[in-house]
Amino acid sequence: MTQISVQGRMEDFFYRELLKYLYMAEQKRRWNPFTDIPYEHANPDSSQTLAQCVETFCAVEMYLPDFTSKMLHMIRRSRGRSWFHINWGYEESKHSLTLEGWLLASGHRTEEQRQAVEASLSTLEWELPFDHPRQMVCYTMVQELATFWNYRNLEKIAAQEKDLALVAGLRIISVDERVHYNFFRNTVKEWMKWDEAGTVADLKYVFDNFSMPGKTQIPGYDEAAKVLAKTGIYGPREYIKLVKNPILEDLKLDKDFKKLEDEEERDNAAKAAKLEAENSVEKISLTNGHAVAKNGDGNSRNPFNSHAVSQVLENLKPGGGKWDSRAPIPTYANGRKRSAFLDVVGIEPAQRTAPSKSIILAHEAEKLGGSRGMSDLDNLDQHLINLGDELSNNADEMRTERAQIQKERSITRESRMKNNKLFRDTE
């Protein structure tokens, strides 16, 4: 029998996961940042705070060349990982274009301001936070789930401010981010099969030293982070409740990074003893059986994107003066430089009644409170999580795990309610 090293097994796993990922992406998840987002519905009366949050996420995406090139140098010899990373960079570039397009379409930023932000972010490079490939997989897994919640919580604010364009863009982007998270999560789970102790040690080290990308490169980052925390988009509480704890739960680890198997074995033994005791008692047999609800199989043939036809090639046909490099720099009627992005989309920026301040271009320290109290996930939160899972590799496995987690949570709640009642009865 041929012996395969752990590294060999992982390389085979990466390549197979890459092919499944690309198949699902091309079949169900591809979308066009120029034609699938209704930029004409960007709300010029949306708040300055909303624009600052969007600009912060845009700023992080500006380091995409570093995110891709420096990781590729580390994983160059792994075809599965390196090719996935290239595709990941392509998908992240669409996220950046969409958010940047909204800033321009809503009138919160001009083309000159966009270029100024771009210039201010180009002086520093992002560096890999960890120097081991497996630690970087753990880091990216954590970062992708955090990013999913960044966009999902930002969408809630955009909905409150009735900005249909931003809501549409963020909803599509958040599903992408959930699928990214699941790819890296599946990779960590696979590594745990072959090197559990080493993988868990790497995961703990990453959590102990985790910070979101851009912290040391983006001007005014600390101020921007306060805005994100104050609005409830992302802060310490969101990190613990929505990112760290769910990851540990997914990987069957407790808060001390210990496997839950021992506890599960004790629970199973207790259940077996209880079942044995119940079986020793004569029971009445019911003839009508039990009804079991079926979950959807997740095999819908309808793709997630709208398949809108891109107009980019039309815009590039000869004779279009706006694409002629010899023509003078095009401007709007107010003298502001035209946005190439909005020209491709085919709309003009909305006119705001009040200026919108950039934290990056001119940031003054503002005293802001900490993160607000956390609420339970709403139905749309859970729907987007489930949708991202269904569009990911190993969807069947994750569907089963979701059901098991929900069952365990229900048992925990019932036990807590019984204990509370017992405590009240003894008072």
From TrEMBL:
Coiled coil: none annotated. Keywords: Fatty acid biosynthesis, Fatty acid metabolism, Iron, Lipid biosynthesis, Lipid metabolism, Metal-binding, Oxidoreductase. InterPro entries: Fatty_acid_desaturase-2, Ferritin-like_SF, RNR-like. Transmembrane segments: none annotated. The keyword Oxidoreductase applies. It holds the Pfam family FA_desaturase_2. The keyword Phosphoprotein does not apply. GO terms for molecular function: metal ion binding; stearoyl-[ACP] desaturase activity. One of its GO terms (biological process) is fatty acid biosynthetic process. Its cofactor is Fe(2+). Residues 405-427 are annotated as: Disordered. Homodimer. Belongs to the fatty acid desaturase type 2 family. This is Fatty acid desaturase. It comes from Abditibacterium utsteinense.
